[in-house]
C-alpha cells in the first residue's frame, strides 16, 4: 500500500518526487523491492513509484540510477515468459519498461543507459510479436523500440529498421497522445512519442510504414496545436520542445511524394518566434513554408 501512495504522490509532482528521493533510505528500500521482492504486486508498485519520480526531472532520474541495484532490478523485471520469467505478470513487466522509458527521456541519463546489459534486454523485447498476445506485449515492444531510438547515436539511426507492427503501435500511441486517450491503462504524452518518431523516420523503411499509417496527418495535427512550455503539457497543446522533432519527422516524410502532396494548402501554427504581436498569439503559415524555413 505504501508503495502505491509513493507512486501517487510522485505522479506529475516534482516537489514530492524530490522529497521521496531525498528522504534517507527510501530509494534503497525501493531498489531492494525491485531487485528481490517476493510479490509481483509490490514490485509493480515500487517500479511505478520510481518511474513517476524519474519522469519529473533529469536530476531525480540521475539519483535513481545511482542507487546500487536499481537499474539491474528494473531491467530484470522487464523480462517475459519466453525468457523464463514465468513468475512475472505482464503488468509488472510493463511498469518496469515504463520506468526505463521515463529514465531514457532525459538526455543527461542516456549515457548511463547505453551499456550492453540494457540493450541485451531491450532489443529482444523490441522484436516481440504482440498482435495475438494482448496489449501488454504491444506496449512493451513499442516502448522498447522508442527507448532504443533515443539511445541510438544519430549516425546509427538510418540503419534502425523496425517491423511494421511495432511502428503501427507507436503511431497508435501518438494518436492517443494527441487525443488525450488512455490505452492499455496508460496516458501517452506527446513529448515522449514525438522524439522517437522523429528519430525512427531517419530510416527509409520506417518512413514508408509511418507514412502509410498516417504519420503526416497526425504530425500536422500537432503543429496546429498551441504550444505549451509548462513542465506538464496541457491537454490540447503541443510541448514547445517537441516542435523541432515534429518538423524533422515531417521533413523526412516529405521525401515521399504522397506525403509531400499532403502538405499543399495545409496551414499550421508558426513557431513561437513567429507570433502575431498585434493579437498576442501564434500566427499561422503554410506547412510547406514552415518546413522550408526549418530545413534552411
TrEMBL record:
Entries under InterPro entries matching the protein: ARM-like, ARM-type_fold
PANTHER family in alphabetical order: ARMADILLO-TYPE FOLD-RELATED, TIR DOMAIN-CONTAINING PROTEIN
Protein name (Swiss-Prot/TrEMBL): Armadillo repeat-containing protein 8
Species for this entry: Hemiselmis andersenii (Cryptophyte alga)
